[in-house]
Design brief:
By secondary structure, this protein is an alpha/beta fold. The chain has five domains: 1-51, no CATH class; 54-210, Alpha-D-Glucose-1,6-Bisphosphate, subunit A, domain 3 (Alpha-D-Glucose-1,6-Bisphosphate, Chain A, domain 3, 3-Layer(aba) Sandwich), CATH 3.40.120.10; 214-314, Alpha-D-Glucose-1,6-Bisphosphate, Chain A, domain 3 (3-Layer(aba) Sandwich); 327-442, 3-Layer(aba) Sandwich (Alpha-D-Glucose-1,6-Bisphosphate, Chain A, domain 3); 444-549, TATA-Binding Protein (2-Layer Sandwich), CATH 3.30.310. It has helices at residues 3-18, 22-36, 40-49, 74-91, 107-120, 134-143, 181-192, 212-222, 243-253, 287-296, 327-344, 360-367, 379-382, 410-426, 431-442, 457-466, 526-545, and strands at 61-64, 96-101, 124-127, 148-152, 161-168, 175-176, 207-208, 234-237, 260-261, 300-304, 311-316, 322-324, 350-354, 371-375, 388-393, 397-399, 444-453, 471-472, 475-482, 494-498, 503-508, 514-523. A hairpin with a 5-residue loop joins strand 21 and strand 22. It starts with a helix and ends in a 9-residue tail after the last helix. The mean pLDDT is 95. Residues 490-525 form the Alpha-D-phosphohexomutase C-terminal domain.
Length: 554
Amino acid sequence: MDKNLLDLLDRACRWAVQDPDAETRAELAALIGHAEGGDAQARHTLAARFDGRLQFGTAGLRGRLQAGPQGMNRVLVAQAAAGLAAYLRDFDAVPSIVIGYDGRKNSAVFAQDTAQIMAGTGINTMLLPRALPTPVLAYALRRLDASGAVMVTASHNPPEDNGYKVYLGKSNGGGQIVAPADRDIAAQIERAAQGDIRELPRSRDYTVLGDDIVAEYVRDTAKLATAPPAPLNYVYTALHGVGKEVLLHTLQAAKLPLPRLVAEQCEPDGAFPTVRFPNPEEAGALDLAIALACQSGAELILANDPDADRLAVALPDEAGQWHTLHGNVIGCWLAWHAAQRARAENRTGTLACSLVSTPALARIAAEYGLDYAETLTGFKYIAKVDNLLFGFEEALGYLADPDKVRDKDGISAAIAFLDLVNHLKQQGKTLSDYAAEFTARFGAYASAQVSVRSRDNAALMQSLRQTPPPQLGSHAVTGCEDLLQDTQRRSDILIFTLAGGHRLIVRPSGTEPKVKFYLDTHGDTPLAATQTLTDLETALRELLRGDTYGKQDC
């Protein structure tokens, strides 16, 4: 047996012996046994599992539930908890943390492990009472003035995944971590990973919070409903996540009508049995909701993703066909609603979105004399905008109540959207009227995203830098901004300006072998903007399938 294999087997055995989870310990033991017996596939799998470790970054940790340092499991989570605990002790003289979890497999176990390790180091540790939405955790962090927080969730990832989302409170404002905190925490985790997790001090001397923290979130969120409630026939799905309970309580507190529930999807189930991917953006995810809406003659559909930090909305067209609204549409409708309220209340503030979201938000801000901020992608940046009035990103994330939380919040967004509907009903108007008025006032905008499965994200980005496209369809490329050269907002993003004021933004995914292309167009009418978008999207796909960029699969 060669030295490399012996070293691999030794590392795997040392990992397995400290793993408290019978399932992953048995999984790893089987791999070790097959590898020792000469099974080439087992050796390959084992080597992949121990080739580095799941990297901790500004999104925390997220990966497949499996044994070894390249997966989400109790050993990796214990190491992360120990590293974060060390960071918090340096960060705050009297450190405290609040921990939440969703309904995914092992979420509760990972949260309890984290609580025991945090308490074992003397940190004042608080655990949410049960599986709850991510926004409740973000609310609790600020409400309890904790030093930090952890939410165990993989949001809308496939069932096989889980994750570990980290926030910092107090002087950091209560949002997700950003640089350099991510690097500092990662360094502490690396130190913790050098030891054996069985030697970490643990304690059950932590507080399980009561329902009062949930009730406070509900009370404060219900205040977003300002219009007199009107009758409304609508459908809601939680996509097998944890959103239903808190949303229904908030609707009741706001005296808003309750929705018809997609019964098959409204209770937490980490197997997500009725959807291929529990992401409301995915084709087919809302099929059951649409079937119920058709059956009941509903006016609209609301959907949360599994940890309820995102909101999707679907509406029927004149022919009765249901369509999911693009995140930019929902974001702009809510932003316009927020701007109108701010003017009526003589308030100022900032409207903010990520740079890959629609440029229409800048028009709204200018029209209402509000400040406008464009951030790097990710709510961790949007949430840090000063004097924030409303923020959103095109991937169905909205921050309608920044005084309450500093992260995207699908429950608050649902209440804000229903408040918009009620304001319109009070005026005898519909959402179709609102859309027409938006176009008349700000112009028509259309957006699309093309995702390319890439064998090498860096190589494709480098190819686009070296050989930028001279045109896209009939539209010349008139400019290119490379944010790797921008010292203020350095990021691996390319922004191409097209003739006519349209644009293309390109960035690699941080978690998948995928490069994302964002197209934004505008025109005098929705039809004109949509036609330009269709033409540009067709041209982009043809360009990427060509030889210049390595015949990408898009």
